[in-house]
Specification:
CATH topology of the largest domain: Rossmann fold
Order of helices and strands: EEEHEEHEHEHEHEEHEHEHEHEEHHH
Number of helices: 12
CATH superfamily of the largest domain: Glycogen Phosphorylase B
Helix content: 25-40%
Number of strands: 15
Radius of gyration: 22 Å
CATH architecture of the largest domain: 3-Layer(aba) Sandwich
Distance between the termini: 16 Å
Oligomer: single chain
C-alpha cells in the first residue's frame, strides 16, 4: 500500500507466515486506572509487554498507578500518570484530564491510541480526533450491559453513541458485547470486531500435591467491589455448614471489611481466608479444586480463563460473555444472578463429587487450549491497530 511507506516495517513475530511484513508502531495504551488488579489491566499489561518485545514503542497513560503491581518498570516501558483521570464523572477533573492527556499525546505523537475502559475511552477518543490520531476502543464490558442500574446504563449508552463516530474500530471481548452494541445501535457492524481475551499457556509443573480432598478448596478471584458478589458466595456457603469446604478469596476493595465481619459473625474464620491482592494467582489456582465467580455483569473475565488454564471446574453467573467460556453441565455450572438456591445445589454437587470435578476441570482446560490462548488474541489485536493506522494514513490524517 502507498500509505505504508510512512512507516517502518519488520517481519512479523510469532506468525505462521515468516515473510509477512508488519508495521512498527508507536502506540499509547490508555486506561482509566492501573492501581488495582483487574481483567482490563492484565490485558493491557500482557499486550504492552508483547508489543515491546516485538519492537513496537509503547507508552502507558493512566490515572492512578501502582508500579508494584506491574512489570512496566523492569521492562523500561514509560508510564504517564494523570491522577485527575477517574471512573466517576467529575467535570473539573475530566477537564484537567483532557488538557493533560492532550499535552502528553502531542509530546509522544503516537501512530495510534488504544483506549480501554469507559472514562479513558471517551476522553481519549475526543483528544485523538482533535489531534488526528486514530483510536481503537476495547470494550472489556459495556457500562450499559444487563445488570447495570438503569440510570447509569442510559447515561453510558448515550456517551458511547456520542464518541463512536470518533473511533476507528471497536474491539469487543465477547460476542455478547458485540451483539449488545448492535442492539443498542452503538455502532455499525463493520466498525466492531470480537476478539476474545487470551492468556499465555504455562509450562505444566509436576502436578501439585493438593491437600486432602476431605475439605475441597474453593477459590474466587475478584476485586471486592460492585459488580462482584463475594457476599452471595459467603451466604450460600454459610448455609452449607454440613458440607466439607474451604474458601480462599483473592482480591481487595472497599467491600472487604463488611465481608470479613460477616465471616467472623458466622464463625467461619477457620474455613475462609482473605488473601488480598496476589501477583502469583497461578499457583493458588493450581492448588484449588473449584473456581467460583459471581458477578452481576461481566465482559469476558480473564479470571475464569486463568481458572480454565489451571484445569478447574467453574461455577459462574450467566452474565455477559461468561457462557462463551463455560459450557453449562460440561466444564462447570452457570447460574442466574441472585439464585442462591441453585448456587448451593451446584456447590454441593461439585464439593461432594471428586470425579465430577475432575471431569469438568479437564473440559475447562481443553477449552482454554482450543480457544483462549494469548497469541491469536495478540495477533488479531495488532492487525486491528495496523489497519486503523493505514486507513488513517490513506485519508491523509
Amino acid at each position: 500500500m502507498q500509505a505504508q511507506s510512512r512507516f517502518q516495517t519488520q517481519l512479523c513475530q510469532g506468525t505462521i507466515d515468516k515473510n509477512k511484513e508488519c508495521l512498527v508502531l508507536k502506540i499509547v495504551q490508555l486506561i482509566t486506572r492501573m492501581d488495582k488488579i483487574g481483567g482490563a489491566q492484565k490485558h493491557v499489561e500482557a499486550l504492552t509487554l508483547k508489543l515491546k518485545q516485538d519492537n513496537h514503542e509503547v507508552t502507558i497513560v493512566t490515572g492512578l498507578y501502582d508500579p508494584s503491581l506491574w512489570r512496566f518498570q523492569e521492562e523500561k516501558i514509560d508510564v504517564i500518570s494523570i491522577p485527575a483521570m477517574q471512573r466517576a464523572i467529575h467535570l473539573k477533573k475530566d477537564l484537567q484530564t483532557f488538557w493533560q492527556l492532550r499535552a502528553a499525546l502531542k509530546k509522544i505523537q503516537p501512530d495510534i491510541i488504544a483506549v480501554h475502559s469507559s472514562k479513558a475511552g471517551a476522553i481519549g477518543r475526543v483528544v485523538g480526533r482533535l489531534l488526528r490520531i486514530p483510536t481503537v476502543f476495547t470494550a472489556h464490558s459495556w457500562s450499559f450491559t444487563e445488570g447495570v442500574p438503569h440510570k447509569k446504563k442510559r447515561m453510558y449508552s448515550r456517551m458511547e453513541k456520542s464518541v463512536q463516530p470518533l473511533t476507528a474500530k471497536i474491539i469487543t471481548v465477547s460476542e455478547y458485547d458485540r451483539k449488545l452494541a448492535l442492539t443498542e445501535k452503538i455502532a455499525p457492524a463493520h466498525k466492531m470486531q470480537t476478539i476474545h481475551n487470551g492468556i499465555y499457556q504455562i509450562e505444566k509443573r509436576v502436578a501439585p500435591i493438593k491437600e486432602t480432598e476431605e475439605y475441597p478448596l474453593i477459590v474466587m478471584v475478584a476485586r471486592f467491589e460492585v459488580p462482584k458478589r463475594q457476599d452471595l458466595l459467603l451466604e450460600a456457603l454459610a448455609e452449607l455448614s454440613d458440607v466439607p469446604w474451604r474458601l480462599q478469596l483473592i482480591g481487595d476493595g472497599s467491600l472487604r471489611p463488611s465481608l470479613e465481619k460477616f465471616v467472623a459473625d458466622k464463625g467461619l474464620m477457620d474455613r475462609v481466608s482473605f488473601l488480598g491482592n496476589q501477583l502469583d494467582v497461578t499457583s493458588l489456582l493450581e492448588e484449588s479444586h473449584l473456581f467460583v465467580l459471581l458477578s452481576d455483569w461481566e465482559g469476558l473475565p480473564i479470571s475464569i480463563i486463568e481458572a480454565m488454564r489451571a484445569g478447574l471446574p467453574i461455577i459462574a453467573t450467566n452474565v455477559g460473555g461468561v457462557n462463551e467460556l463455560v459450557s453449562d453441565n460440561e466444564s462447570g455450572f452457570l447460574i442466574n444472578r441472585d439464585d442462591k438456591d441453585l448456587l448451593k445445589k451446584r456447590l454441593k454437587q461439585l464439593l461432594m463429587d471428586e470425579s465430577l470435578r475432575q471431569k469438568m476441570g479437564d473440559a475447562s482446560e481443553r477449552r482454554f487450549l482450543k480457544d483462549f490462548t494469548f497469541l491469536p488474541m495478540y495477533q488479531n489485536t495488532l492487525f486491528v491497530y495496523e489497519q486503523a493506522v493505514l486507513k488513517s494514513a490513506k485519508k491523509g490524517d
